[in-house]
Amino acid sequence: MVPNFEAKLQEYAHLLVEVGLNVQPGQTPSIESNVEYVPLTRQCVAACYDCGARDVVAYYGDDFSTREAFLRADEAVFSEYPSYMKARVDWYLEQKSPRLSFTGSNPELLKGVDPARIQARRKVSGPATKAYFDAMTANRFQWCVGAHPTLVWAEKVFPGKRGDEAIDALWDAIFSVCRITGDGKAVERWKAHAAAAKKRIELLNSYQFASLHYTNALGTDLTVRLPDNHLWAGATDHTPQGVEFLPNIPTEEIFTAPQWDGVDGRVYSALPLAMDGNLIRNFYMDFKDGRIVDVHAEEGEEFLRRALEVDEGARYLGEVALVPYDSPIRNTGILFYNTLFDENASCHLAFGAAYPSCVKGGEDLSEAEQKAAGLNQSMTHVDFMVGTQDLSIVGAAHDGKETPVFVNGNFAF
Length: 413
Ligand code: ZN
Ligand code: ZN
Known about the structure:
Layout: H1 5-21, E1 30-34, H2 38-50, E2 57-61, H3 63-72, H4 83-95, E3 99-103, H5 115-137, E4 143-147, H6 151-157, H7 163-177, H8 186-207, E5 211-215, E6 221-225, E7 233-234, E8 237-238, E9 244-245, E10 254-256, E11 263-268, E12 273-275, E13 278-288, E14 291-299, H9 301-307, E15 317-322, H10 328-332, H11 339-342, E16 348-352, H12 367-372, E17 381-385, E18 392-396, E19 402-407, E20 410-411
Helix pairs in contact: 1-2, 1-8, 4-5, 6-7
The structure holds zinc ion (2 copies).
């Protein structure tokens, strides 16, 4: 049993609803949940009403029923998207309703299902929900992704534990990295955390560094040029109406995009990279004019090489993210096998696509214009951790003036 579980669950629900979604009076949030998440979901519903929600609906999926349908429902079902389901997402889009969902579902749910059925379902659900999810990624309404342990996930993270013991261990880990102690003050802690991130973002944006220089004892010696008019981002996002929200809890990173052809030198990994169930350990990458020209891994090198062959853009970087070494996630020492957590464990880089919002006005540019502005284009985006306890990052201004950004693995300011 997790000590003080009820109080922590309630604190987590309030954190997701008050800071994650920041539900405003009169709004009509929806919660995409699962029958296995009922206690947390009920706490979230109550927290939405505490914020003045007009109406709250929790939609409960059920893994058993989903799997049965994929195995046994009439073939024709998979090429239809029911009009009432389309009407539902359209209604929520029109209302600009906040959306809460949870990560944690069973990755093996559809094992053994005819892939043609899965593909057919995707083919009809994709277009029907595209406008809704496009609006979500463009932050036209508030959204947040929380986490809920499931047995398969928990036993993967804690291979020595089984059943409830594994689930409790994962709850403990989630609470701890979400700064939930049971004292009911997580909301205040996260507001302060987001405000501190904002201050650093403003400072970094005012520096407008020409480049960042990474060094550490592993042998990392990497220079990353930054595009003109680059923007640092992180922590909160906001809707066009100016409502601030925190789409990812936990989040520790502040990030921008590198100039796609401006990366030179060598970088060593600081943590294993988990990709499609494979682990890549102790690797380095060599860069020349932005391009990854060589890689070497002590374990799993072939998976890394394959990932770089997805398209030409996969061989270039698309993200530079700063995360202090003393982050709650790395302090747990746990590999979560889940991006929501793992990408917040240490300073990371990503090969593949850059976020358009990382240069001024980037969201209004075509793909070709984005590339001209310095942003890498690719179908893939893979984060890998490079932050060590001794990592140093020095920012160089256009006139050559140097400013420490990271000293001994942590922010210099
Ligand atoms: Zn990141
Ligand atoms: Zn990333």
